[in-house]
Amino acid sequence: MSRRGLVVGSRRTRLGRATLVGAMPCTREQPLLDTLLDSWDRNNAFLVNLLRLVPQGGLEARAMPGSPSVLELLAQMHFVRLVFLSESTPDVTVDLPGEAWIHEPDTERIAQMLKESAKTVRDVVRTRLEDGRAMKLHYDNPILFLQHMIWHEGYHHGQTKVALKKAGLAISDEAASPGTWGVWMRKST
Ligand code: NI
Fold first, then answer.
1. Is the pLDDT reported for residue 61 higher than 90?
2. Longest dimension (CA), the chain
């Protein structure tokens, strides 16, 4: 999915080190909405952890000539979150990223951007569900938007792994699993 043509603005954000894993423990007493949003937090933790495992030079890797680079895939995931959110909830102010950071090679800056867009999505979905308000476009309810983004990012995660492998920079399952699949499968009780 590519919506890069819809960029309408730019914004500089503060730099900072994103939390490696932001997932919270789930309990039986936890409200369903918190559990749902926790799954979104885990999705972003998965992505940021993967980003931090990309070997030097890996951000420029492509699965095939003409395919998006790893950096472009990550930028696209960040961008799609915000574009679909802005289209679906036009009453909410969403700062869309400019083109410049698509060429941003700073891993920690990319991590921070992903963290910020994940929080924006989280906050809007929570408010929308708590208020019982519909989305204006694309989705019958905010949960479908959230599920769409998780699916979309899983799809691009696979492409990222293929691109790195093609470039001879594959991340071993042993190195990747604790911070990626392990984020989903971490039973706390
Ligand atoms: Ni896409």
1. yes
2. 50
Predicted confidence at residue 189, as pLDDT, reads 75
Q: Which CATH number fits domain 10-185: 2.60.120.260, 1.20.120.450, 3.20.20.210, 1.10.10.10?
A: 1.20.120.450
Distance 12 CA to ligand 1 centre (A): 23
Q: Where are the domains of the chain?
A: 10-185
Q: Which residues pair with 69 in a beta bridge?
A: 62
Choice between 95 and 57, residue whose per-residue pLDDT is larger: 57
Residue position matching structure tokens 């989305």:
135
Q: How far is the CA of 14 from the centre of ligand 1 (A)?
A: 26
**Distance from Cα 57 to the centre of ligand 1, integer Å:** 22
The predicted-structure confidence for 168-186, as pLDDT tens digits, reads as follows: 999 999 999 999 999 999 7
- Ligand 1 center–CA 6 separation, angstroms: 13
Output the CA 103–ligand 1 centroid distance in Å.
Answer: 17
Q: What is the DSSP letter of 92?
A: S
Altogether, the residues listed in the chain come to a count of 189
CA-based angle 186:59:167, to the nearest 5?
Answer: 95
Cα(30) to centroid of ligand 1, in Å? 32
pLDDT, one tens digit per residue, over 159-171 is 999 999 999 999 9
